[in-house]
Design goal:
The complex is a heterodimer of chains A (190) and B (329). Chain A is built from seven helices and no strands. With 190 residues, chain A is an all-alpha fold. The longest helix of chain A is centred in the middle third of the chain and has 24 residues. Chain B has 329 residues and is mainly alpha-helical. Chain B has one domain. Chain B has a two-stranded antiparallel sheet with strand order 1-2. In chain B, strand 1 and strand 2 form a beta hairpin. In chain B, helix 1 packs across helix 11. Chain B is globular. The model of chain B has no long low-confidence stretch (mean pLDDT 84). Classes of the chains: A mainly alpha (190), B mainly alpha (329). Chains A and B meet through helix 2 and helix 3 of A and helix 3, helix 4, helix 5 and helix 6 of B.
Chain lengths: 190, 329
Amino acid sequence: MFEAIAFYTFSFLTILMFSITVMTSQALYALTAMAAGMIFISAFFFMLSADFLGAIQIIVYTGAVMALYAFGMMFFDTTREVKEKIQNKNIVFVLGTMVALLVVAIFMAPVVSENIHALYPIQEGLGNTEQVGIVLFTKYLIPFELAAIMLLSAMISGIVLAGKKMDNSLTLMADEEIELMQEANEKVNS
Amino acid sequence: MDTALLVETVIKIVVILLVFSALAGFGTYFERKVLAFMQRRLGPMNVGPYGLLQIAADGIKLFTKEDIIPAGVVPLIFKIAPVITAATAFMAAAAIPFLPSFTIFGYEVHPIVADINIGILYVMGMMAVGLYGPLLGGLASNNKYSLISTARAVAVFISYEVVSGLAILAPLMMVGSLSLLDINDYQAGGITHWIAFSQPVAFILFWIAAFAETGRTPFHLIANDHELIDGFGTEYSGMRWGLFFIGEYANMFFISFVMAIMFLGGYGDGSVAGAFALLGKVAFFFFFFLWTRAAWPDVRPDQLMWLTWKVLMPLAVINVVITGFVLMF
């Protein structure tokens, strides 16, 4: 009975939070609701006793991804409402509904036709973390390594793009040096 | 799930909430006294014997002060931000074993709320979510200083999470389990089995990262009094500001518990002496937080980032690689 109560509570909360994310025109509400929704999703993992995935859901989505969104939002005035530029409301409505229905259809199709097989059945006597590790390093080894290489190249390109002036620190320079640097920049820009 | 388990869990949660809320209050008293003695002052002396009732006076002041919501803020987010800080700090406590299991009136009590097998991961995750308190508080405050403080908080938290995560990876590889109970049992053989001796680098790195994650003094840039007024707490007053404080102190206690269990053997074999040893270790870590505040100045934000990415993170990665090689051969 507890499981049913927990399931319906967290389903309701998750749907409510993501609805707020989509509907609101206040950027901070959207950010907070999305972070909360990500945490509520982890409740389903905990209910299915997939503790590892639940904790990873919290750490990766709420701790890291949403914090990066928040970093982007610091450049705007978040206390004001966002004015959305919507030229045709009907197009937005139809496209949004269509995509939502399509996603539901995609995920429901195997459930309805009862065509789900566990290719890697759960091995008895092993913890949740070990199971994830075994699947990750046998069946999904190549996608896993590819993702690692992709992240590495993204990191290196990020450093190359952002790190041009990493060696000069504005706090360590004298005022004249900063002025000289600014003048040089203006010459390049003009 | 039977009713007995439910009642037991609720009792444990209430006890942990009450004990650590009270300890947060005592924490402020200890902090003022320790700082005062280190600076050759007396600290709070007037309210009660040795100023002990100062906590009660502060509590009354915080609770009865007018709760001001300034104009121009986002009211809802502004109100829930302090609650997030306090709540996530206490949620992290769910997976920490505070004492070895003991028997009371013939009923065996395990002083841990949820014995999940990924304990340490859950604690780190919840402390990561604690970032949302300063973040939302600063963004909703409509104040420049709060915004700068928020930017620093996010940068510092994300950077030092990388360091603390990589630092505990090496001990976890040795133990082979993410449960804090298993980590404790791994070191049950006594002082020579402590992970602090086999993984000294990881211990020091995690200790440094703990200062950043709780926002304590060498890395106290998040609510930096002398340049940012009070950072994300500038616009807060009364109990809402007090909740930020309770969250910070509760976090200090919980991360002290995590460090004592992970690196200094925890409660050892589970005897009474082991339980007192655990409390002693936690007290030492908490005292060390206060000691550093008296002894060290703050570092600059750019020095902080330099330290993370150019010193601590490479060290942590090298430590993980070496541990891997040693375990393999």
